[in-house]
Amino acid sequence: MLLEVRDLHVEFHTREGVAKAVNGVNYSVAEGETLAVLGESGSGKSVTAQAVMGILDMPPGKISGGEILFKDRDLLKLKPEERRRVRGQEMAMIFQDALSSLNPVMTVGEQLGEMFTVHRGMSRKDARTRSVELMDRVRIPAAKERVGNYPHQFSGGMRQRIMIAMAMALEPSLIIADEPTTALDVTVQAQVMDLLAELQRELNMGLILITHDLGVVADVADKIAVMYAGRIVETSPVHDIYQAPAHPYTKGLLRSIPRLDRKGRELYAIRGLPPNLLHIPPGCAFHPRCPMAQDVCRTDVPPLYRVSDGRRSACHFWKETLDAR
Amino acid sequence: MGRYVIRRLLQMIPVFFGTTLLIFLMVNVMGDPIAGLCGDRRCDPATAAQLRAEFGLDKPVWQQYLTYMGNVFTGDFGTAFNGQKVTELMATAFPITIRLTLIAIVFEIVIGISLGVVTGLRRGRPVDTTVLVLTLVVISVPTFVTGLLLQLVLGVEWGIIKPSVSPQAPVNELLVPGLVLASVSLAYVTRLTRTSIAENARADYVRTATAKGLPRRRVVVRHLLRNSLIPVVTFIGTDVGALMGGAIVTERIFNIHGVGFQLYQGILRQNSQTVVGFVTILVLVFLAANLIVDLLYAVLDPRIRYA
Amino acid sequence: MPEPLSSDGAISPAGAGGAMDLAMAEGASLEKAPGGPQGTGPAGRPRSLWSDAWRDLRRNPVFIISGLIIVFLVVISLWPSLIASGDPLQADLDDAQKGSGPGHPFGYDPQGRDVYTRVVHGTRTSVTVGVCATLGVALLGSVLGGLAGFFGGWWDSVLSRITDVFFGIPVVLGGLVFLSVVTSSTVWPVVGFIVLLGWPQIARIARGSVITAKQNDYVQAARALGASNSRMMLRHITPNAVAPVIVVATIALGTYIALEATLSYLGVGLKPPAVSWGIDISDASPYIRNAPHMLLWPAGALAVTVLAFIMLGDAVRDALDPKLR
Fold first, then answer.
1. Candidates B204, B212, B215; nearest CB to A97
2. For chain A (length 325 residues), average pLDDT per consecutive 10?
3. Domain count along chain B
4. Check: complex ipTM more than 0.90
5. pTM greater than the 0.90 cutoff
6. Is the separation of the CB atoms in B298 and B304 below 8 Å?
7. Which of A57, A71, C206, C298 is 20 to 30 Å apart from C224, CA to CA?
8. Where is the signal peptide (chain A) (predicted)?
9. How many domains does chain C have?
């Protein structure tokens, strides 16, 4: 297994108290595999990724438990300098908003070239040549002329291509993409997603795709992990989950996607608000919003029940949920 | 870019005339420009009238202003109280004040920015709190008190420096006065850098730089600092003009014969030509500094350059 | 074009320009910012900027200490005889420059006047100048700047150029020119001068925050619903624009006190027989070597007073600006 996150706990120490952002997350990614992590904002999907990447702001963040095994090493036990060498070379990250994620006062050439000068000790000139190659590879037109441009001179789609190029630069074995297409125009989203998937296949990388867009997931993901209140509530191979969700929250998410074949029907919305991480409800964190909640949900934290091979659901009533479709 | 410079230059024209007119009015209407011309006595009415006619003071103020400005543009700044040409006074005074100002700016850059970076990266830690309190104290104690105290301690008690600067004002004698002149701005630079660093440290592009696996040092210097220093550089740029105008107090304490000293003499002796002449130059310096800062801003921030 | 922060540093640091720089240096934009990380702010009860700020201030030791010092200063400036019953003008040359003795804890000044009594009575001068100048500056500045920001157009352009003119005059220099011909020994010429040179600073702040407030969606909505100009200004814009003005004005109060002392030190501020710390420091400075106490006591009082106001402004700004929490 390329990456295995085991029982990860992350909390944030704020003035109002301790916010439990991640509460015992387990997931894994193999080489060439795509894991989609789904959830609302505040579900802990980005925080988990930042913990894996080692870019969590600490303080206020704190990893209070668990292991992150990457190529059989526990990243949490590495020295800061060893950890730094993993970043960029062996795993890389693509962020949501490429405009703010790129340095506004450095040319894209400098920012791409930095990967080669710092990690590979290349000369500036060689690094520049490699930067142009990278830009070509992510299909930025007139790469040679544009290598000296600044991020704000590119369109949103082109900027995200530059982010992708930067992540791919040293051909890492794992890419974490945090909502890579959310900030883009719908027409551009598909192109960027296709490019990402294509490069992943070519380099046989593991990909963690963080998103709240179920439409994107269906096309590219191999398996799905749904997160709620810092926990994984359902994991599944991608097709099964669309056929029959085994958790009421997943079901709610699926039913809230607008679909052409259900035109005219009322759009479903999960009632209530995401939980306050300072005061996560006892029992199943989803129970205040769950249409199926019983007394047991208010008291007992549901374990991840085995639904079938590769499928797990953290719902006391996963059978009923499966059947109730 | 070219059009931008031209527009800025055009905007400066009314400001230049407005400021100089204001000072001209203050000096000529509020004070009595010939009061200082007859030595320590009051001029007798006949002489006074003659002097007024001679200097064109019987004409309306706006006409006097135009005449004066006309002369200024031909390089004639008039004569000072002791019969010296104002331009000659300037030739000795400005180099000294410029030297003093440069020393002050160097202090601002070296000490202010270093402290700002250190505290900005360690917000909430003891270093940060200590420096913050210190900057508040420096800002709160007026420059003239700081100056007098440093003069007392370093100059009189410990004898490390000369309490009074010699007329040539060599650089080594100007170090402590330069620090005094810089003190308040230095505290601002520290606070400004700190805030800027602290804000930018949370920016997405810094997170990206960390995610790229760059060493911490490179993240800070190449990514964080380069962005954070834009407002600081612009502040220091405009401060050049402010420091030169504000040097009066420092120059008086350490007896430095610079611009402030000459101005102070001119004001005490009510010599309007000296005062208006020096102020005109100071206003020009200030406006030029502002223009340079605006252009610098564009150089430092490509988003403005290509906008 | 960027609003150059820089041009505010125009006025000499010793003087009125300071407050602006300090406030700007800390980013005086006082828009409401979202709560803690991960959006974990307690849901439910809406909290206003002001009640939030007040709750913060009550727990802030800086605010409490500076507040107490200021209350004390105001009380003794109203009733100086409470703690110093002597006459600040009574002089006996036999006592000149003497150190402290029974009943005269701070000793005597160069004219043989009691330093303690003079320091206490000097409070009134400083506080009067500070308060009156700040009120004048705040009123004039916020009205002119507010109108310029609200209506824009030619009035805005003219006002911008006028403020540029005033910023172009170094404040100590202007004070020397303007005040050297005044012979009155009251505080009013100094107050008038500070108002004359100080208002553009507040005008800029007020203009900026009115423009920001005007662009808020809810103000646009009110406009679209046909709210009248006067109603918009009173109900929607003023409350938002007031906070930054208060912050800058509080800090400015401290710097105005310092400015009065500086001008008095230079011999153009207050004139004897007025009792002013600046005059006392100036009188004492030739004897700094033999009788430093004559300088240190008024200088200390001055520094503590200015510090108290600046710290108060600092604390208020921190409370009103949630951005940096």
1. B204
2. 88 83 88 88 87 84 87 87 88 89 91 91 91 90 89 89 90 90 81 87 90 79 88 86 83 74 66 81 84 82 84 83 73
3. 2
4. no
5. no
6. yes
7. C206
8. none
9. 1
